[in-house]
Amino acid sequence: MPRVLLIEDDPSVREGVELGLRRRGHDVRTAATGEAGLAALDEFRPDLLLLDLMLPGVNGVEVCRRVRESSQLPIIMLTARGDDFDVVIGLEAGADDYIVKPARTQVIEARIRAVLRRFDEPATGRPAVEFHGDLSIDRAGLTITKSGGRLALAPSEMRLLLHLSATPEQVFSRQQLLEHVWEHSYHGDARLVDACVRRLRNKIEDIPGNPRYIQTLRGFGYRFGPL
């Protein structure tokens, strides 16, 4: 079972989430502050980070930024209702998904599994490595390179690129991408998609503002080029 680091300052939430995940077999480490959570990362070496946005001292957004400076560790944010502005900032900082508190353990467990399920099974007959201009995609090895240099992609970025590039030129709506990439079966939050697209463009595009690979079709969604 995945090892989970939970950074949450509310004792009741922290204890409830920890107990629920432990009952489902997870090895869980907790921290009440951003500083303590960052210190626990190297020691505990989790498979996933559950991160509250509103932390004292070093807040969740700053923790997310610091983690992304050196790691593509999957990150799920925990947020209270009404924290819309902070959600957007957190997603831009590199979070893969978010959960609104309070949330049942079943919901948290499902999101953990979805984020850790990093890619779809490659379709039969596909080449081991695909080349799209100066971008190469190794689906089996989960390796993306641009001009020969390997790119570090967060789980949601990897899954989004793999899904879009599997059928070049096909247009996907935001809701379709939420269902396939994030496994949100309900009418989900399109901000997840838009933030992930922006982060991915910053990594694979020469000019993110004039994208070659991931193109926007206003009113419809996104498709993979390249132009």
SS field, number of helical segments: 8
Q: Would you count the extended β strands for me?
A: 11
Cα Rg: 18 Å
Strand order of the largest sheet: 2-1-3-4-5
Q: What average pLDDT do the residues reach? A: 90
Order of helices and strands: EHEHEHEHEHEEEEHHHEE
Tell me roughly what share of residues is in helical segments.
25-40%
User: From the helix content, strand content and strand pairing, which structural class follows?
Assistant: alpha/beta
What features would you describe in this structure?
The chain has helices at 11-23, 34-44, 60-68, 84-93, 105-116, 155-166, 174-181, 190-204; strands spanning 3-7, 27-31, 48-52, 75-80, 97-101, 129-132, 135-138, 143-146, 149-150, 214-217, 221-224. Strand 4 (75-80), helix 4 and strand 5 (97-101) form a beta-alpha-beta unit. The mean pLDDT is 90. The longest helix has 15 residues, at 190-204. 40% of the residues lie in helices and 21% in strands. Strands 2-1-3-4-5 form a five-stranded parallel β-sheet, with helices on both faces. Strands 6-7-8-9 form a four-stranded antiparallel β-sheet, with no helix packed on it. Strands 10-11 form a two-stranded antiparallel sheet. The chain is α/β, with parallel strands linked by helices and 227 residues long. The protein is globular and about 50 Å long. The chain has eight helices and eleven strands.
